[in-house]
TrEMBL record:
<keyword id="KW-0143">Chaperone</keyword>
<comment type="similarity">
    <text>Belongs to the prefoldin subunit beta family.</text>
</comment>
<dbReference type="InterPro" id="IPR009053">
    <property type="entry name" value="Prefoldin"/>
</dbReference>
<dbReference type="Pfam" id="PF01920">
    <property type="entry name" value="Prefoldin_2"/>
</dbReference>
<protein>
    <submittedName>
        <fullName>Bifunctional Prefoldin beta-like/Prefoldin/Prefoldin subunit 2</fullName>
    </submittedName>
</protein>
<dbReference type="GO" id="GO:0051082">
    <property type="term" value="F:unfolded protein binding"/>
</dbReference>
<dbReference type="InterPro" id="IPR002777">
    <property type="entry name" value="PFD_beta-like"/>
</dbReference>
<dbReference type="InterPro" id="IPR027235">
    <property type="entry name" value="PFD2"/>
</dbReference>
<dbReference type="GO" id="GO:0016272">
    <property type="term" value="C:prefoldin complex"/>
</dbReference>
<dbReference type="GO" id="GO:0006457">
    <property type="term" value="P:protein folding"/>
</dbReference>
Amino acid sequence: MSATDSKIEVLKTLEKERIRLLGQMDDVGQDAAEHRLVLKTLSELPKDRKCYRLIGGVAVERTVGEVLPALEAHANKVTIANEHLHADGRD
């Protein structure tokens, strides 16, 4: 394999990695948007209303008042992760 061929392989590998990272950035961005939508919807409901939350693939019955704080904390983490990914992507 010549030096040119090895450089081409490195470039192809880097391009695949870039595409994979862009996909992850898109996924995290969509997760953040979904969290905001759910938070907006739940915040308009009575705190004692029954709702279900998926935990480890299992739907667990809770109240809106129980779910909102945990969902807000998770949404903040997702938003921070999204901001970090976009900041790292610009570097």
